Amino acid sequence: MIKKDSKIYLAGHRGLVGTALERKLKSEGYNNIITLTSSQLDLRSQKDTNEFFEEERPDYVFLAAAKVGGILANDTYKAEFIYDNIMIAANVIEASYRYGVKKLLNLGSSCIYPKESPQPMKEDYLLTGKLEPTNEPYAIAKIAAIKLCRYYNEQYGTDFISVMPTNLYGPNDNYNLETSHVLPALIRKFYLAKLLQEKNFTEIQRNISIYPIGYGLDKEIVKEDEESIINVLSKVGITSEYVEIWGTGEVYREFLYVDDLAGASVFIMKNYSSSDIGEVINIGTGEDIKLKDLVNLISELSGSRGSVKWDSSKPDGTFRKLLDVSKLRSLGWKHQYELKDGIQKATEKMISL
Ligand SMILES: NC(=O)c1ccc[n+]([C@@H]2O[C@H](COP(=O)([O-])OP(=O)(O)OC[C@H]3O[C@@H](n4cnc5c(N)ncnc54)[C@H](OP(=O)(O)O)[C@@H]3O)[C@@H](O)[C@H]2O)c1
């Protein structure tokens, strides 16, 4: 039973998932949460991680620290993706065992299920087929973390749980158009298109100063030069007439508002142990949307009057990626944010910074 003053170590508190977990824990009155940035404690160092655990002796651990990125980053920094993620997981899990952590919740990801997995994806489909080659280093490290939790439980009697969230979005997301995931990229693109239609260059400049465009284009933007802004935005497919999107839009994706993930994670941490959960548990809505419909929804919500230009020469990616959430539902948990509300909240948060 977690008490309000139980010592909780939240690893990765500045990330998309970590900030949502901190909001949720604080809103439920947990008042003894320890957080450190990666420069204060680099979890790749076993020595530093052990010293921290020995001194602090947390009761509960949320492991939301990881090296995360899109296809391009995964492809460019393959060695870092496998090394950093294996080291972070191995060090935190070993230290949690060594220094008597009561329960640990490890963040896996739905992107580590096999590339050709049957749909919807059940928990026991893990490791039943080849991985998606573009993120194999990351996936191998995340699978190692899941297996570490499982085998520490089996050998040492620890209580380490792994959850498998679907695609997440929400406050504190990555809006860099080069490295972001599809949903935050769409939110931002349509927002910028609407500002262009309104000729609101002041707000465009403010937005660009907070969130980089990426692709090395930011240096081409000359402050208070509208021409340079129009040029750069058109290079990433944003004009006042249209927004360009990769692929055909004929694929399906599932999305979960990150506060729902935090809600489910805290719910599981409070009420269940690894013996109830098994090796992993999926966390999602169990509902997907056609990309074309998602684009139309975001376009409508943004107030943009432009059209959508599909670039069908670009790849679509996997046809469908949907989680089977029957295990989670059987525990009595269901998401609260429907896609439309989540997108509106995420957009408000992006604009308000
Ligand atoms: N985003 C998604 O859609 C999604 C979906 C499914 C699962 N997940 C999983 O959720 C977890 C968190 O993802 P996220 O999207 O929140 O990532 P994120 O926004 O990139 O945040 C990553 C966090 O990890 C910390 N970190 C990175 N390297 C570290 C190191 N060497 N030592 C200590 N801390 C380090 C960072 O700390 P600093 O900020 O201090 O550098 C940051 O707080 C990951 O395991 C990911 O696989 C994410």
Ions, cofactors and other ligands present here are: NADP nicotinamide-adenine-dinucleotide phosphate
CATH architecture classification name of the largest domain: 3-Layer(aba) Sandwich
Please tell me the total number of domains.
2
Q: Walk across the major sheet and give the strand order.
A: 2-1-3-4-5-10
CATH H-level name of the largest domain... which superfamily?
NAD(P)-binding Rossmann-like Domain
Structural class: alpha/beta
Straight-line distance between termini: 37 Å
What coarse outline follows from CA principal-axis ratios? Answer: globular
- Briefly, what CATH class of the largest domain? Alpha Beta
How would a crystallographer describe the biggest sheet?
A: 6 strands, parallel
Beta fraction: 5-15%
Which topology of the largest domain does CATH recognise?
Rossmann fold
Helix amount, in percent?
A: 40-55%
* Number of H- or I-type helical stretches: 13
The SSE string, one letter per element, is EHEHEHHEHEEHHHEEEHHEEHEEHH
3D structure, described in words:
The protein has 353 residues and is of the alpha/beta class. It has two domains: 8-170 and 254-287 and 320-338, Rossmann fold, CATH 3.40.50; 182-251 and 290-311, no CATH class. 44% of the residues lie in helices and 13% in strands. The strands form four sheets. It has a six-stranded parallel sheet with strand order 2-1-3-4-5-10, with helices on both faces. The model has no long low-confidence stretch (mean pLDDT 96). The protein binds NADP nicotinamide-adenine-dinucleotide phosphate. Residues 12-18, 37-38, 42-44, 64-68, 84, 88, 107, 109, 165, 167-168, 181 line the site of NADP nicotinamide-adenine-dinucleotide phosphate.
